[in-house]
Design brief:
The chain has helices at residues 12-19, 23-27, 33-39, 154-163, 177-189, 198-210, and strands at 2-5, 51-54, 79-84, 97-102, 105-106, 111-112, 118-123, 129-134, 139-144. By secondary structure, the protein is an alpha+beta fold. The relative contact order is 0.12.
Length: 211
């Protein structure tokens, strides 16, 4: 059994894949209970601060004939990338044509978002970056996979606000004027009181981000 210190871009799916496990096996492991209760989400971890306990692998033996070539296929469940496309007024970009590139590999371009602007794509568990091409390739959105931090961390709030189109600064964990302005724009766009406590605002940002 070992403790894996979380690096930038890590989440339970990538850590499990690198060590030959399903992510649920690590997430549900008793030694990860404290981390599970702290984060509540297997896809949002804090680099350098969080540690994931990885159990020892369990050997498995297979009987095979000699002098023949045998193929062993590793079982696994791919991760799923979920995106919702909205226009500048917050309306779904229904049936928008797109094509997707994952870690430099371009996928077929004959796909469309659904009527609510939603896209779902299976991706490798250890994928690090995706690029979404819209408007015939004129609009390109770069997506860092596995880098979303918890919603009670300033970096996590900044990332969610950026994904929602309200924050355009660096994701640096700083309470900068750009961050304050993004919070104000978010409150105004959703008819929230300017005096709404910060923690309540963060919870609303997380809720909107998960829609």
């Amino acid at each position: 059994m070992k403790a894996h210190r979380v690096r930038a871009g890590d989440c339970f799916t990538s850590i499990a894949y690198e060590n030959g496990f399903f992510w649920q096996t690590l997430w549900d492991h008793p030694e990860n209970r404290a981390l599970r209760e702290l984060r509540r989400d297997p896809f949002t971890l804090v680099p350098g601060a969080d540690k994931v306990v990885v159990p020892d692998p369990r050997p498995k033996e297979e009987s095979c004939q000699t002098a023949k070539v045998h193929t062993f296929r590793r079982r696994g469940v791919p991760a799923k990338l979920r995106i919702r496309l909205l226009d500048h007024e917050g309306r779904p970009r229904a049936n928008e044509e797109y094509f997707l590139e994952v870690d430099g590999e371009l996928r077929p371009n004959d796909k469309k978002a659904d009527g609510d602007g939603r896209i779902e794509e299976f991706i490798p568990n250890n994928a690090r970056q995706a690029r979404l091409f819209l408007s015939g390739g004129e609009e390109v959105v770069t997506i860092a996979l596995g880098y979303l931090q918890p919603s009670d961390e300033i970096r996590g709030v900044q990332s969610r606000l950026a994904n929602l189109g309200f924050y355009h600064g660096e994701v640096d964990g700083q309470r900068s004027p750009a961050f304050a302005g993004a919070l104000a724009r978010f409150r105004a766009a959703h008819d929230l009181d300017e005096s709404l406590p910060e923690d309540d605002t963060f919870q609303e940002i997380e809720r909107r981000h998960e829609e």
